[in-house]
Amino acid sequence: FLATGIYSAVEIQHRFGYSQPTVSRLISQISGKILNIGKARSRRYTVLRDIRGLGGEFPVYKIDFDGNAHLLGTLFAVAHDEFLWSAIGGSEQLFRSLPWFLADLRPEGFVGRAFVRQLHQDLGLPPRSADWNEDHALTALARRGEDNIGNLVVGQESIERYLRMVRELTVSIRSEDIPDTYSRLSREAMEGQPSGSSAGGEQPKFTAIIEREGIVQSVLVKFSPPVSTDEGRRWADLLICEHHALEIIQHAAAFPAAQSNIIEAGGRLFLEVVRFDRTGLFGRQPVISLRAVDNEFYGFQDSWVNAANRMESDGRLSPEDAGPLRWLSVFGSLIANNDQHFGNVSLIMGDGGKRFNLAPAYDVLPMLYRPMDGSVPTRVFTPPAAIPGAPREWSSALDCACLFWERVKDDARISEGFRLICSENHSAMLRLYSGPKIIA
Fold first, then answer.
1. Residue 64 falls within a domain, yes or no?
2. Beta 278-279 vs 268-274: how paired, if at all?
3. pTM attached to this predicted model
């Protein structure tokens, strides 16, 4: 009976017509086979569910800044396809799916699809992650989850793999070897074997550990198709644009942004971005997407501006973090970034998941102009005259957008045709300075 759901002692009494003492005695007799949820009068009972031969109990570890693992709690797979999260020294919480703080760990995007193709047979999983249920996802996390985004590792097998991985970590790529190594890794990625398993997003990419001037860094590397093609040339232009956008956010706006470098090698262009969910050689940061947080606490997925205002009003984001998030939305709208989905903003999670800090900006580029199906369609950019909900951020964002279009129109690494588009957009930014405007 307990395998069909989660029940209180009173519900068990009513179901079988037993007295309270009888139910208590029966529960005591099988205590080793059932799971207690809650305490005293709120206590309920169920049984563990076996996840594809792995059992139903999964330790969850967090990796600290030095790479050490700390037990955070235990995830139990229970009856009725639900999950019980039991934190160390904390309360228990029941979820109908995997807990929200694990949502970003599911394989997705370019690297995620390659991960699934490589390992689905070994793990006994469907060949497409789109066909996975929660048990499939948990199986992958518990068996091959040692190198996910953020700082969480699920399951005993994965934590053992993590410890072996960091002890046997290969030598980082030296700066003089980066061009040739990136060329090789890009070829391997396009053949379905990208380095790393923890990066989302559709843009082809791989992860690496590099060493420059004695400093070891974990990096995420996006790359273009061959620049000899129209598609490759446009993606190269856009990756250079992203590099400029990140530098402007960091230096002109003085907001956190991922550090980036441009490398040209092997007929491709590479955008190397320092990972902010990694620290040094082994350490990790508790990074989570705005998508996961919004899905758990709000369920709107509407706009970055509205998300910033919601989270600021209920104390989950400080004003010092909500303002930059609003600013990023305004700036993105002024540089033709029409890909402002909630997976493109990350937060750094505090203990308990009650407060968050805005992580460095990334994936900020004029995606309006991205290639489609191998071609480069003509797009007309009409910049907004205002962004609802963010009047205070408009002036600074416009200044930085004007600087962005000025820099990219003058960058000789960008194709002549796209530089002409950038020049037209720069003129459009200048026109926004004239006439009446919303005063905050």
1. yes
2. unpaired
3. 0.92
